[in-house]
Amino acid sequence: MSEETSPPTPRAAGKAVPMFSLGRVRTIAGSTVTQLVRMKTFYFLLAFALVVVAVGNFNIPTTPAKELSMIKKVSFGTMDLFAWLFAIVATALLIPRDIEDRTLYTILSKPVRRIEYLFGKLCGVLVVVGTSLLAMYAICAIMIFARENLYISSEYEAMTASGQYSEAEIAQQISLIRQQGLRAELGIAVLASFFKASVVAAVTIFLSTFASSSLFTIIVSILIFLIGHAHTMATNFWLHESNHSIFVQILVKVVRILIPNYQLFSFSEGIVQGEAVVYALVWQMGGLTAGYLLVFLLLSLLIFVDKEF
Amino acid sequence: MSEPAVEVKNLTKVFSIGLKKEYVVAIDNLSFEVKAGEVYGLIGPNGSGKSTTMKVVLGLMAASKGSAKVFGLDSGDIRARNEIGFLPENPYFYKHLTGAETLQFYGKLCGIRGSALKDRIAELLKLVDLEGAANRRLGGYSKGMLQRIGLAQSLIQNPRLVILDEPTAGVDPIGSRQIRDLIMKLREDGYTVFLCSHLLEQVQEVCDRVGILFNGRMRREGTLDELIAIENQTTMTLENATPELIAEIHALVGTREGARIVEERHPRTSLEHLFIQIAERSRKENP
Fold first, then answer.
1. Chains A and B: how many Cβ contacts under 8 Å?
2. Would A214 be classed as within a structural domain?
3. Structurally, how many domains does chain A consist of?
């Protein structure tokens, strides 16, 4: 069975390996994307589509504008939930599985730096989360657009048929519906969900570098996510509104630094409700997300770099 | 004298267990060398420290004391990985990838791209006889096929040193034979092979030199001839010998003081050879 193979090339030992290779990061990210896609993780989009279709077909006795607002609120809320949950579960499965299956041995025995491995895994998850969010947004957009046009035409017909409304009043009513309909600004709400899911994935990667199992990682990540949503409230209580010892105050400060403030990402809720977008805030949140990613990636590396397998 | 492929000097590896900080010495002051171009086998029972030694050489673990070098480079130095191909025990590569995609993945990690990578993948798939299964996902591979694709991935960047941890563990005799043939082929092609196993017969067949590890310590080391030859005995196999000739030999031996015939029997084929012969015959009859 054996055929000719190239003999090992005599070369100087110690061929230089670059400090950081984007090519290797891309390779690991690409493999992570393929892994998640072939694990059929995108099937959850079907569940999401069902939720959106169900919400879109509720008949609530209210105004069309309010109904559209409700559809958006539930759909974007579900989208956000799916995004962060997916980010946790997908990320928590990757590194422990590589260790259990010894795939990590073969990867790290190649000239791959550990930071490249971690960064590649994170990028892979983010690509899948981003793609999922875009797909979910497309499903939402179709539903909102369809409902919006349906409401506009039925409202126009009803108001015209009644003969009680002037053209200006009809236009105002339609404008109200349009305000709650499909607008380009909704894309910013999707971006906010992506920012949040990215931070969640980075925290999960950090946890999985020292966790003993995927289950532990998932549970602790969800716990951190929940604590992160009570960040401001807890800080106000423990640091400003009560007389706690210095020890408690230091502890709270440390926790405040370590646990990301997920509440900050809730600015998307206002956008979904039709509020104007403050672009400076979006940039600020983008910067904050990049900062969190960097910090958690470095913390992960700190643990992972000397980890023995 | 050429640089050794692997140089392990006074290597000690201690693991701390639990919160009470109990210590377990996995490797105890181990020293050995693997010369460039040879097949070196490290044998020992389970838990003797073989895999730990390999992991230190691969840079997956740090030594508690002592050093491990690969072609003169410290095993923790990432540049040493360019020179190493590694096949772990019972490898489970990404099951979602096909054989060709697996080689492509590892090739890209080693910085190989484009037509060079394509040609190398084709060459290695041919070498390990998996051309027909190149586009099949690894989830559907048998144990032997997984070992062979694992061997192919270990060779993807054309390393000078190939490290194999229990390369035939759990593989049937035919698959096992194929892997042994491949190891011999690697030696012919100039690769250095460093393997760990507790399957002594296989090690005996392929290794130039052997080290026997027990409780983390090197107990014996040397060439196979040095280790297993019985100095005061000689084996002679005769073909077409008549009963008269055998009687003459007996008579001659009887005249020499101290000399005696210890054993006399017809040579046998091994059960493994017999199994392979039958399997190959059946395959020819029912292709």
1. 137
2. yes
3. 1
Alpha-carbon gap, residue A201 to A225, rounded angstroms: 11
- CB count, 10 Å around CB of A210? 12
Residue A97's H or E segment, with its range, is helix A64-100
Number of neighbours of residue A70 by Cβ within 10 angstroms: 15
Domain ranges within chain B, ordered by starting residue: 6-228, 243-285
CB contact under 8 A, A102 and B123: no
Nearest CA in chain B to A9: B158
The model carries a pTM of 0.82
Task: Domain B6-228: give its CATH code.
Answer: 3.40.50.300
Residue A162 included in any domain: yes
Determine the average pLDDT of the residues in A180-189: 85
Of B70, B77, B109, the CB nearest to A112: B109
Distance CA B61, CA B76 (A): 8
- Convert the pLDDT of each residue in B235-266 to its tens digit: 888 888 999 999 999 999 989 988 888 888 88
Beta-carbon separation of B77 and A14 below 8 A: yes
In a domain, A89, yes or no: yes
Q: Is residue A2 part of a domain?
A: no
Give the β-pairing of B6-17 and B65-70: antiparallel
Indicate the SS3 state at residue A175: helix
Question: Which residue of chain A has the CA closest to B3?
Answer: A13
Q: How far apart are CA B185 and CA B162, in angstroms?
A: 12
- Residue A268 belongs to domain spanning: 22-304
> Could you tell me the two tokens for A89?
């579960």
Token pair for residue A102? 């010894």
Q: A15, B93: Cβ pair inside 8 Å?
A: no
